[in-house]
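Work Package 3 (structural annotation) set out to generate three-dimensional models for the target panel prioritized at the project kickoff. During this period the team completed the workflow that converts sequence records into discrete structure tokens, so that structures can be stored uniformly alongside our sequence database. As a representative example, we reproduce one entry of 373 residues exactly as it appears in the project archive.
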Amino acid sequence: MKVKILVCAILLVSASAFAEIRLGALFAVTGPASFLGLPEKQTLEMLVDEVNASGGINGEKVKLFIYDTKGSDQEARKKFLRLVQKDKVLAVIGPTRTGSALAIKDLAEESKIPLFTCAASRKIVDPVAKYVFKSPQSDDHAVEKIFEYLTTKNKSKVAIMTAQNGFGAAGRDALIGIAPRYKIEIVADEKFRDTDKDMTSQLSKIASNNPDAVIVWGVGPAPAIVAKNFRQLNMKGYLIMSHGVASKKFIELAGDAAEGIILPAGRLLIADKLPEKDKFKKLLVDYKSKYESKFNSPVSTFGGHAYDSFLMFKKGVEEGGKDGAKIVAAVEKIKNMIGTAGEFNLSEGDHNGLTKEAFEMLIIKNGNWEIAE
């Protein structure tokens, strides 16, 4: 009897010693969206190291499984299935791109694996899917912030240029759908591909309509080419980008053409300029300092999306344990959570929890970010 008790005790101790929380992640670490995916990967690795160094979550260490989607929707589906079937993860953070997130939304539901995406489109969480959340501000919020800004400048004629991908399509839908509410007239509607090397054709058509502003919706190198061509054609009016370019990498790619560009972005980019009493400043400055010190690279809002997704996941596990449905229920109860993107208030009907107030309108000046007046 004593031997049995001893064996059971050893097994329990062993199980406890080797217990772990298996967390999956999908990021576009290579490919056109790599400047979004790499900071997401690095941020998540940094946070998991910190949590494990402090004892883990509920006393269990987090074991991380990360795969590169290369920005491909098909690769995202394949790697998601690998995370679920082979790696047996409890939840997944990512993917980076809207198209990839939409491509695996059904898989997360079918497998009942909580998914905390780092992509922006409202369509990821509307309609709500029980197991799918997202941490970035929605494209709807970005559009509302842009139109609100233009209205204060008494500008109402805009041209739009949107990428032919999931992010661009979602942005175009939002721009066209929300424009009437702000009495904005869309005088030109052009598109571009991620791989296009010259946008002068689309911009020349836009110029003939004499808009007050050109609004560009895309990620990767293509928006930087739009900026260069816009300056080369000596076009007038505002050049406004989406939050998809909220990275120092964009400024590097666009060079001098980035000067004066306006965009909606999270407060992380202006963390040092926030007043001391700002409720977001401490978290933002702390994250920025740790990230830039560890990776010798400027922080970006995209890494912040991974930061916020991990916060959601961690709170879910702390309250719900290692049960997917209970994690979902716990995340839906998150209120007043301060993240890099803003203050999160989630519910059963809102799996994002942010509003347009999570954005600030910024302008690029001298290669840096400033609050737009």
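Confidence is low (pLDDT under 50) at residues 10-17.
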